Amino acid sequence: MSGRTDPRVTRTTSALRQAVVELASQRSVSRITVAELAERAGVTRATFYNRYSTPLDPLIEVLYADLESGHRLEDCRRAEGYPGPALLRLAVSEVADHVERFAAVYRNALSDPADRGVYDAMVRHFGDYALDFLARVAGPGLPDVSHQVIAQFLAHGFAGAIKAWLSDPDVTKAQLVDATVACAPAWWAGAAESPGRPR
């Protein structure tokens, strides 16, 4: 049996992802029906349900995939020996660029109380990232306390900063990056320099 993915599956997944981003850029994902998403993607509802449960599922896949590309770039920079403070600023800037690419999606989601799924997914992603970071690095001052608590503290803080940026047109992307870097724990930049254990 070949391990290759059927090209039809790849095309269908790509079509659904593109369609859900288009629709979620127009209104919150909680207001998108499976029927209209399937129609926009050119697939049947049955095909949709073979892969997903709700329109939120493919949307989160798109957002996570884009965020992961930034994290891979961060890993490359760390391997090249970038200093910790520069890594931290570049990592935050990559996330800000991601949010800017999907600004309409995030703004629609954050403006609708019924559509908390996108925000919760953002917090979950940052929490998982922080846990992975803490498990792989070692540096001066790295606190010997619960990594789970640290990860949740950082994840909710960063997601909250992004929400504040999107909610206030007077806050620029540069100001978001400056504020987030200023709030990062002093030990984070030192730990960021360590290549740590391989994934």
Could you say how many structural domains there are in total? 2
One letter per element, helices H and strands E, the order comes to: HHHHHHHHHH
CATH class bucket of the largest domain: Mainly Alpha
Number of strands: 0
Provide the residue-averaged pLDDT.
89
Main sheet, how many strands, which sense, barrel? none
Low-confidence stretches: none
For the terminal residues, how far apart are their CA atoms?
28 Å
Strand content: under 5%
Q: How would you classify the helix and strand content by structural class?
A: mainly alpha
In the CATH hierarchy, the architecture of the largest domain is Orthogonal Bundle
Annotation field: number of helices: 10
Shape: globular
Based on CA atoms alone, the radius of gyration comes out at 19 Å
Helix content: over 70%
CATH fold-level label of the largest domain = Tetracycline Repressor, domain 2
Structure description:
This protein is an all-alpha fold and 199 residues long. It folds into two domains: 7-51, Arc Repressor Mutant, subunit A; 57-192, Tetracycline Repressor, domain 2 (Orthogonal Bundle), CATH 1.10.357. Helices cover 71% and strands 0% of the residues. The chain contains ten helices and no strands. The chain has helices at 7-24, 34-41, 45-51, 56-79, 84-101, 103-110, 117-136, 147-167, 173-183, 186-192. α1 packs across α4. The longest helix is centred in the middle third of the chain and has 24 residues, at 56-79. The two termini are 28 Å apart. The model has no long low-confidence stretch (mean pLDDT 89).
